[in-house]
# Entry
Amino acid sequence: MKISALVLLIFCFCPNSCFAAQIYGTLRDTGRPVGPRVKVEVTCGRSLYPAETDNYGSYKLFANETGRCTLRVHYQNQAPEIAVDSYRDPAHNDFDLIREPNGQYLLRRR
# Structure
């Protein structure tokens, strides 16, 4: 009885992020952090999970789904994207923004 009450309390008072998959990492452009407030989005199925970078180019978000997702970075009026996997355990994803000769950015894993 006590255990079931405890489990019920955890489900009632624990935010959804306790049961979500954490995706985190850093973004760099030419070896330097991209800086603060760069918009990062992860799309899993029909759900969108937004985040922004901090002063060090780090981002962190929680996705309720697991499996194959798409990470998109809104940077310099562009939105390069790359496939990432969402797990129940935290997933660390560091990326470099690579500027191609035509001026387009792409994301490459570090």
User: Anything to note?
Assistant: The CA atoms of residues 58 and 87 lie 19 Å apart. The first strand starts at residue 21 and ends at 29.
